[in-house]
Design a protein that fits this description.
By secondary structure, the protein is an all-alpha fold. It has five helices and no strands. The protein is 69% helix and 0% strand. The radius of gyration is 25 Å and the shape is elongated.
Amino acid sequence: MLGQIGPGGFILIMVVILLLFGPSKLPELGRAFGRTLREFKLGAREILEDEQPLSKEGTSRSERNPSLDGPIASQERRLPE
């Protein structure tokens, strides 16, 4: 989508943004956009790290929860690995 916008299109977009927000608000908007992008990347990285398969971790479900007892333990034994 952005590949189809030429240099003239980018200049037009920047002029419209400048007219809408004014020159005093542009640095503040840039900082807010940068913070938002950084937080998004951090969250995406955390999600990807959390979803690593168990085979890479080398632990099974029973090894992760060795102290379960009572009805919870019986439910845990019924679940497939």
